[in-house]
């Protein structure tokens, strides 16, 4: 056999062992071609576990925004109900989920069920229960700040359940650092990025354009990583890469922004 | 003559033989019998114990009621045959009560008034009154066996009417004029000429089944088996009746007279034995520690049965089975975390953002408030005017702003200063003048701002600078993606 054939055979064997299940669940394209090229399967995988981290502590909302965009893509690929699980006191930090804000992402708020749990183990139990259900398309868990209950075993259980039933699991972390390895399909670190200004004639201050985030794919099953700046397009309900020249942000005072980020 | 000082409220048989009675001062009692054992009276505790005993009596019938200060009323219509007849039932009850250390006088009669009168004042410990012989049985009893107040009883005694036999047949209008309608009312109720409403502790259930164990049980697998058996019976009854239930209660009776109860509420009508059994078994852990010396009986009662649409379980998964699956998930989550912690969103017809959406527990099927809006209204805006995260309550911020209408140039929130680079707004939301007593009285102007780092916030000013007396202040209401 030629070396190419041998390599292809090896890749196939390793791929089979890596897969958690025999099913091949559909893959949701994110809409940004460069992003999809790097992701395994050509897009966000349904039936898998995805993790999201904020790049700095104050980027929680930005992380949530990107996560909701990813959720919108997943739901368009596999429709169903969404179960949102969070610890009971997390609402003090950043506020509660407000369903009217889901409209720009195209997610119907009637699909949401919110569950408040006292502890992380309960949250993981709720996530596993919801993953095993046929009516659910995605489950979302938000880890509290000083969480210690989520580890490799828990992530592996979630990933296996997700793979068995085709339901996608999202884990949002409140901390920027994730010390341990987990059995996740992809892990993202998201930072807020100034958006393209919308000029209003006669006004000193420009208006807001579509939300923009700077992504870093920290870990992926295929092994690739990368940095991108993406925007959410609420008309096509998909992501697009912010073009480097045309959509660049105005000149920023680097020192102040860096100080802000460090302080947050 | 009313005496001050401690008085006896209850005496046991030995004390009564010595001549002590209720109402006698304790000092006198001690003088008669120095080594007398006196305990302080606990009327609240007694009431509580009576109530618990009434709950324990549910193993005989689902309709029981406590009759303070020292009686219990049980409606055994249709239950007696399960215990082998009324006589066997009374025997069983009195033996068990003796086991608890209580002496009981039991009377079984067609009416509540007659049963109570005979139990309190009848000559025998256990009496059976067949249908049609009520008059003979209650005639020899004294007047205070009927539930009349003190003044009436004394008044009747003064007239020479000291037993019920003398009361029957007397002119009704004269007595009613003299003592009020109460006297005749009670007499008619006892004789069965008038209806009396029985107010049971729990409302009459649609389904009630009991199972008794041969010996007291403390281990979980046996209790789970009993639960499966009972839910299987319930499911069969529901299937034949074509109904589903939304609320079930499992009661486990301990040998020492206590009762442990588990109540399950479902989000959707259900006929499914497995689902109900699973929900109950998950909660059994909580009561396993309270088994005491063991459980000897279990009852299952189901409430609120409604006509049930049987759904075809589709071969391919479609929306029909999806609702069913979702309801099962909701039930399990509610069972574990409580009703208030599993919610879904219901839009309401309000302009104020914090009132525009309500988090409703999944158990409630319809909104309580009549101001629910159509869900499509919430989805109308496709642009980014509302944030995905809303702070409750809004937090105050310090701003540096050019009046009267401009967005802030700089603001400080949670001790971090942000310099605003882009802003949209203002969006003006006026107070809801149609809500009476609304605490929100000022107009709000909302601004979406982005700071230098790219983080977006939703600020508002409560009040207008132009309006005198408004004293506007700035808050942050939400955070954008």
Please supply descriptive tags for the structure shown above.
heterodimer, A: 264 residues, alpha/beta, Rossmann fold, nine-stranded mixed sheet, two-stranded antiparallel sheet, 30% helix, B: 481 residues, MutS, DNA mismatch repair protein, domain I, Dna Ligase, domain 1, 5 domains
Helix content of chain A: 25-40%
Would you identify the regions of chain A where 5 or more consecutive residues have pLDDT less than 50? Answer: none
CATH hierarchy, class of the largest domain in chain B = Alpha Beta
Greatest interface (CB-CB under 8 A), with counts per chain: A-B, 73 and 61 residues
Q: Please describe the biggest sheet of chain A, giving its number of strands, its sense, and whether it closes into a barrel.
A: 9 strands, mixed
Beta-strand content of chain A: 25-35%
Oligomer: heterodimer
Structural class of chain B: alpha+beta
Walk me through the structure.
The complex is a heterodimer of chains A (264) and B (481). Chain A is α/β, with parallel strands linked by helices. Chain A has a single domain, classed as Rossmann fold (3-Layer(aba) Sandwich). Chain A has helices at 3-18, 33-38, 60-77, 91-94, 120-131, 152-165, 254-263; strands at residues 27-28, 44-45, 49-54, 81-87, 96-97, 112-117, 136-143, 168-173, 186-193, 212-220, 226-233, 238-241. Chain A has a nine-stranded mixed sheet with strand order 6-4-7-8-3-9-10-11-12, with helices on both faces. In chain A, strands 1-2 form a two-stranded antiparallel ribbon. In chain A, α6 links the parallel β7 (136-143) and β8 (168-173). Chain A is globular, with a radius of gyration of 19 Å. Chain A starts with a helix and ends with a helix. Chain B has 481 residues and is α+β, with helices and mostly antiparallel strands. Chain B has 14 helices and 18 strands. Chain B has helices spanning 13-18, 26-32, 43-56, 86-99, 112-121, 134-138, 150-158, 164-167, 172-179, 182-191, 220-241, 273-288, 319-337, 375-379, and strands at residues 64-67, 71-74, 106-108, 126-128, 207-217, 243-254, 259-270, 295-303, 306-307, 342-347, 357-361, 389-396, 398-400, 410-413, 416-429, 444-451, 456-462, 473-479. In chain B, α11 (220-241) runs antiparallel to α12. Chain B is elongated, with a radius of gyration of 34 Å. Chain B starts with 12 loop residues before the first helix and ends with a strand. The mean pLDDT of chain B is 85. The chains are: A alpha/beta (264), B alpha+beta (481). At the A-B interface, α3, β5, β6, α5 and β9 of A face α13, β10, α14, β12 and β15 of B. β6 (112-117) of chain A pairs antiparallel with β10 of chain B.
């Amino acid at each position: 056999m030629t070396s190419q054939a041998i390599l292809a055979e090896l890749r196939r064997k390793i791929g089979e062992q890596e897969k958690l299940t025999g099913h091949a669940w559909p893959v949701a394209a994110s809409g940004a071609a460069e992003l999809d090229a790097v992701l395994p399967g050509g897009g966000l995988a349904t039936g898998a576990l995805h993790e999201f981290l904020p790049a700095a502590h104050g980027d929680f909302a930005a992380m949530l925004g990107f996560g909701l965009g990813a959720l919108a893509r997943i739901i368009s690929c596999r429709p169903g109900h969404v179960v949102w699980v969070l610890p009971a006191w997390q609402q003090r930090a950043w506020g509660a989920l407000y369903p009217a804000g889901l409209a720009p992402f195209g997610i119907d708020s009637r699909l949401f069920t919110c569950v408040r749990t006292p502890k992380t183990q309960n949250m993981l139990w709720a996530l596993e229960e919801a993953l095993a259900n046929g009516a659910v398309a995605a489950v979302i868990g938000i880890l509290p700040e000083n969480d210690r209950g989520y580890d490799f075993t828990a992530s592996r259980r979630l990933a296996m359940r997700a793979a068995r039933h085709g339901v996608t699991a999202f884990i949002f972390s409140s901390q920027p650092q994730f010390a341990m390895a987990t059995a996740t399909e992809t892990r993202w670190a998201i930072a807020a990025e100034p958006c393209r200004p919308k000029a209003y004639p006669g006004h000193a201050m420009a208006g807001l354009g579509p939300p923009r985030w700077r992504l870093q794919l920290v870990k992926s099953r295929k092994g690739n990583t990368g940095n991108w700046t993406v925007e959410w397009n609420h008309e096509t309900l998909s992501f697009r890469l912010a073009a480097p020249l045309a959509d660049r942000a105005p000149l920023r005072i680097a020192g102040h922004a860096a100080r802000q980020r460090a302080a947050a | 003559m009313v005496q001050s000082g401690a008085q006896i409220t209850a005496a046991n048989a030995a004390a009564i033989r010595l001549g002590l009675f209720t109402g006698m001062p304790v000092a006198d009692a001690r003088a008669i019998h120095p080594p007398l054992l006196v305990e302080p009276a606990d009327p609240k505790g007694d009431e509580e114990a009576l109530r618990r005993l009434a709950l324990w009596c549910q193993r005989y019938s689902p309709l029981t009621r406590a009759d303070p200060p020292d009686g219990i009323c049980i409606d055994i219509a249709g239950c007696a045959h399960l215990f082998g007849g009324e006589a066997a039932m009374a025997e069983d009850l009195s033996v068990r009560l003796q086991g608890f250390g209580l002496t009981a006088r039991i009377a079984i009669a067609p009416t509540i008034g007659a049963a109570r009168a005979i139990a309190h004042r009848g000559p025998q410990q256990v009496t059976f009154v067949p249908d049609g012989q009520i008059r003979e049985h209650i005639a020899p009893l004294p007047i205070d066996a009927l539930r009349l107040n003190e003044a009436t009883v004394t008044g009747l005694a003064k007239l020479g009417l000291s037993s019920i036999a003398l009361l029957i047949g007397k002119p009704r209008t004269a007595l009613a004029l003299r003592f009020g309608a109460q006297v005749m009312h009670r007499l008619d109720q006892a004789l069965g000429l008038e209806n009396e409403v029985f107010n049971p502790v729990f409302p009459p259930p649609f389904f009630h089944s009991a199972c008794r164990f041969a010996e007291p049980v403390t281990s979980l697998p046996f209790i789970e088996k009993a639960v499966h058996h009972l839910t299987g019976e319930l499911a069969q009854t529901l299937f034949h009746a074509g109904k589903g239930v939304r609320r079930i209660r499992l009661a486990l009776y301990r040998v020492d007279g206590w009762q442990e109860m588990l109540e399950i509420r479902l989000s959707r009508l259900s006929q499914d034995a497995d689902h109900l059994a699973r929900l109950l078994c998950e909660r059994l852990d909580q009561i396993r520690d309270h088994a005491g010396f063991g459980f000897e009986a279990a009852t299952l009662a189901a409430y609120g049965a409604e006509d049930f649409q049987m759904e075809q379980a589709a071969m391919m998964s479609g929306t029909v089975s999806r609702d069913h699956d979702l309801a099962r998930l909701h039930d399990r989550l509610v069972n574990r975390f409580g009703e208030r912690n599993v919610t879904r969103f219901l839009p309401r017809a309000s302009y104020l953002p914090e009132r525009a959406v309500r988090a409703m527990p999944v158990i409630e099927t319809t909104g309580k408030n009549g101001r629910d809006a159509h869900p499509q209204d919430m989805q109308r805006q496709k642009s980014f005017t509302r944030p995905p995260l809303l702070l409750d309550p809004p937090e105050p911020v310090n701003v540096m702003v050019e009046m009267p209408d401009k967005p802030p140039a700089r603001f400080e929130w949670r001790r971090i200063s942000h310099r605003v680079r882009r802003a949209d707004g203002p969006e003006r939301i006026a107070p809801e003048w149609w809500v009476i007593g609304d605490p929100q009285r000022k107009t709000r102007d909302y601004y979406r701002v982005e700071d230098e780092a790219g983080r977006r916030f939703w600020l508002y000013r409560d009040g207008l600078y132009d309006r005198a007396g408004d004293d506007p202040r700035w808050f942050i209401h939400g955070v954008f993606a």
